[in-house]
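Hi Y.,

Following your request, here is the sequence exactly as I used it, all 64 residues.
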Amino acid sequence: MQTLGIRGEDNIYLHLRDGARENNMEVIEKLVYQVRKFRPEIIITHNPEDMIIRWNKNEISNSH
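Below is the corresponding structure, written out as tokens. Let me know if you'd prefer a different format.
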């Protein structure tokens, strides 16, 4: 946070364990509330397909 210039009092902890979030209404409501409250110009997140689509680099076909 310090590197990004975010003050400690501006940190909001939603009590969602890293890597253990579920796609359910409780989580969605917490996130939507914060987005609506702060109205950020940009939100940076991960690609949801990374969580859905699993691939094994050893199974890549040699078709190129």
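Residues 22 and 28 are 9 Å apart (CA to CA).

Thanks again,
Q.
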